[in-house]
User: Fold DUF2061 domain-containing protein from Stutzerimonas balearica DSM 6083.
Amino acid sequence: MKQRPLLKTFTFAILHFLTAFVVVYALTGNFAISGAAALIEPVVNTFVFYLHERAWQRLGHRRSTRSHSYGHDLFARFLRRSGPRGASLRR
Assistant:
């Protein structure tokens, strides 16, 4: 196994733990709750990710030209509706 991806994974796990710890500590001011949340959150997040992947596979998500261009069409309609910039300032 290559060392770099393993090191990157390990450092990301540490950052993830520290981020969760700091956020919860900032909200609660409690070290015990912060530590517990920082340990529990990655486990819960992993389980949710698994469920998300399963749901995504069941939907049979396929990229097609039509679905890919839908977002562009929606954005274009939004821009047309919003009108030119500064239109609300005109009398």
